[in-house]
Every structure is written in C-alpha cells, then in structure tokens.
Amino acid sequence: MTKTNHPTGAPWRNFYGRFKAKTLRPSQELYLAEDLEPLSPGPVDWEENPDRVPLDLAARFEGKPVWLEIGFGAGEHMVHQAVRNPQVGIIGAEPFINGVAMLLGKIRDAGVDNIAVYPGDARHLFDVLPEASIDRAFLLYPDPWPKKRHHRRRFVTPEHLAPLARVLKPGSIFRVATDIPDYVRQTLQEVPKAGFEWLAEGPEDWRQPWGDWLSTRYEQKALREGRVPHYLTFRRV
Q1: CB 134 within 8 A of CB 125
Q2: Pairing mode, strands 115-118 and 89-93
Q3: Contact criterion met (CB below 8 Å) for 39 and 79
Q4: What spatial distance separates the first Cα and last Cα of the chain, rounded to whole Å?
Q5: 141 within 8 A of 216, measured Cβ to Cβ
Q6: How many Cβ atoms sit within 10 Å of the Cβ of residue 196?
Q7: Which of 13, 142, 162, 170 has the largest CB neighbor count within 10 A?
Q8: What is the pLDDT along the chain (237 residues), one digit of tens a residue?
Q9: 56, 113, 135, 143: which one is catalytic?
Q10: Which fold is adopted by the domain 13-236?
C-alpha cells in the first residue's frame, strides 16, 4: 500500500520483510561504519533528499553504463558481475542489513570500485533514478511470498514493475531467476504488461543459466531441496 503523508510529500510505503536478523560480527559492524556511506549512489532517502532530486549517475559512475540489482541478498552475484564488467557501474538495493554487511566484506575482498549500495527498499531508489538511465536489471530469487493473500507483496506487481520500466532504457535487459513455479507464472503474466518482451525461443532458454551466471547460495539451497531454477530474460520495449 502506498500513501502520500510523509512530511516531505514523498510516498510512504509499507515494508514487509526483515531489516536485520542475528547480531553482526565486529568486522561487519566495521564495514558498515567505514564503507557504506562512501558507496552510496547519492541522496536517496527523504531526509537527505527532500526535493527528490534525480541522482547524477553520470557523475557517480564517470559516464559508465549502469546496471541495477534488486535485492542482492549476500551480494555474491553483484560482486561477480562487477569483477567481470569493470566497464559498467552497478547499483544494488537491499534493505536487509545483514546482507548489506556481507556484501561490503565481499567488495573489500574483491577490490572492486564500480559498485554503489543503497541499504533500503528499491522503490525509494526508483523515485530518484532518472528516466531511462539503467542498462540492465537483475531480480534474483526474490522473496516468493508463497501464501496467496501475500502475492500482492511480490516484486512482479505493477507497484514495482511500472517504476522499473520507467528507469530502464529501451532495449535493456531484465533478468529474473526463481525456483518457485507460481512466481514464474506471475512473472510471465505481469512483466510483459509493464512493457517487456520475454526473449525465450525454446525450453533451454529458461532451463539453462545465463553464460555469465554465478550460482548463489540461495540457488544452491534450492537445488539441494529439489527445486528447479528458472532463468527468465526480458527486454524493455
């Protein structure tokens, strides 16, 4: 549900999920204290950007193409892509602070400098991303919200897909990975309505991972439990 009664006039949104779980390790507390602010994509939250001024991505990433990962989990895929693609900038949005801390440790270990991190709800980031500014987006193993009454909380709903479509460049790629059959159904139903075309020409196009794919810990868990990953590729039209 979206409201407009925030003191700045910006949308006020309900968030369903966890912001923090177990206690962070001292090293992770250090990463958050020292690394998170320098890795900011720019002013996102209402308190620091009350006028909702668009981010200057060209300045932040020195004119590089910009990719977006929505809900990066522990960050292994995003760091993998940053290492493989130093010619692009990558923004990750993740509200779960334990995952953010794990990502920061991976960034230190890999020594990459083309990542920006927003520790919050991707919908707030959409508010300040310029129109047609993102060259590629990833939605990898999002929260499935398995109960039918909770399906409206899934990312693949108009509340999320409409602003995603706004910030993606025409012709850009949107990748979705999930191991939940009903999430596949809803994705194939809703994403095309938002201005995307599914690029699969045959079963192998969704059964086989992308050539630059890194299997995440969430995918490994799914495979151990007998679930089948699906790799869906869309193009913004």
Answers
A1: no
A2: parallel
A3: no
A4: 28
A5: yes
A6: 24
A7: 142
A8: 344 444 445 555 454 444 455 778 899 999 999 999 999 999 999 889 888 899 999 999 999 999 999 999 999 999 999 999 999 999 999 999 999 999 999 999 999 999 999 999 999 999 999 999 999 999 999 998 678 887 888 999 999 999 999 999 999 999 999 999 999 999 999 999 999 999 999 999 999 999 999 999 999 999 999 999 999 999 999
A9: 143
A10: Rossmann fold (3.40.50)
Q: Using alpha carbons, select from 191, 171, 172 the residue that is nearest to residue 232.
A: 191
State yes or no: is 127 an active-site residue.
Answer: no
Structure tokens at 186: 């809803």
Instruction: Please list, in sequence order, all residues whose beta carbon lies within 8 angstroms of the beta carbon of residue 57, skipping any fewer than 6 positions away.
Output: 41, 66, 89, 129, 130, 133
Q: What predicted TM-score, i.e. pTM, was given to this entire model? A: 0.90
Tokens of 10: 């910006």
Q: Are 223 and 229 in contact (CB under 8 A)?
A: yes
Distance between CA atoms of residues 227 and 11, nearest Å: 37
Q: Is the distance from CB of 66 to CB of 132 less than 8 angstroms? A: no
Which candidate, 135, 126, 134, 136, places its Cα nearest to that of 161? 126
Whether the CB-CB separation of 198 and 192 falls below 8 Å is answered with yes
Question: Distance between CA atoms of 116 and 34, rounded to whole angstroms?
Answer: 14
Residue 83 corresponds to which amino acid?
A: V
